[in-house]
Amino acid sequence: MREIIVVGLVGLSFLWPEISIICLPIAFILSFKYILSWIHERLFGVPRFRVKLGKVFFIRDFGKKKKVGAFILIEENPYSPFEAEDIDFWGQNKFTLEGVFTEDPDAEYCFIFVKKENDEKLLLKVSVVEDNLSEAYTRLKKILSYLRKHLGSQNIKFRFISPREAYFDFLEEHKSPKTSYTVLALAGFIAYLLFGVGILPTVISLLIVVSLVLLVLNFRKYGWGLRLKKDYVVLEINENRGLYINPHYKDILTRARMAQKSLRSPKSLVLAVKVNVGEYLPEYFEHEAERMYERGTAFDKLSQIFFATKKLAAVDRFYKKREDLYEVSIYALVDKKHLNSLKKVFNSLGFRTGICRILYPFVHKVLW
Questions:
Q1: 275-304 pLDDT tens trace
Q2: Residue 74 and residue 114: Cα distance in Å, rounded?
């Protein structure tokens, strides 16, 4: 919604220049955080984070709290798409997946598929965030003890691995002082020049100056950060509206086989699926569907009304049939040569895809 407002304000500024002095500052303020993050990553890289890697656990600061996590390597699943019948694949994997989140639904769960040349790994990352380390350790050990029993009862072969084995070596140090300093100095000089000749309004000039000052302060705080290695790109897989329907289990197996076969084509790939199992999700989806339905009826948009109806149907199945409801974030890191083919795979599955312009959420909130 915010993006639509920003685009609308910029459009109004071009159509009626006399109101640009009001519209442009508002648009700049609404998109300020995104713009600042984007510029910071281009000039100085993704901010670094301190992480301690142990034999089983990893520890990192998460704001003022502590985040403790562990990686589980899934070595063999007897109910993979090409080894199970349709009803067994759907039933057993549904039971296994639902059981993973049973012990602590508020923990963070992320499934990560890593492929490099001929080496493939399927990882389950489990992490918790607490005010102190002792609480985080106690909570995480309880979850891992439960997962050991649950996965073992499903005949899934697995083992706990060191975070160093799960390390993703696609990031490198970002350091280009001459280019970064030159861009900052040039931006400040141009803003001063345009303000001096009366092209830029005073408010816009002040906002640009504040942005430059914040960039310098962030750099002094975080220093040089990280960036993707050359020829890599992160693909953000957006909403799949087809997921709100109740598909047949044969269709689920067909799509799973197609996805598994296609994901093995790139030479290097990191596919991360973060699952959120919060108790607030039914109310959140219901509220979101109601707002979407109101917008659809107000502006007479059938697509909005239709999608809101599907969302409400999904929430209704949660209450009546006790189906689980998940919020999922999906990111795929792939080399640029296979970007288009990977896009086609996800588009054929009904997903909307887009290039991830800001890497901070992918690196800080999904992988670690």
A1: 888 666 777 777 878 888 888 888 777 777
A2: 12
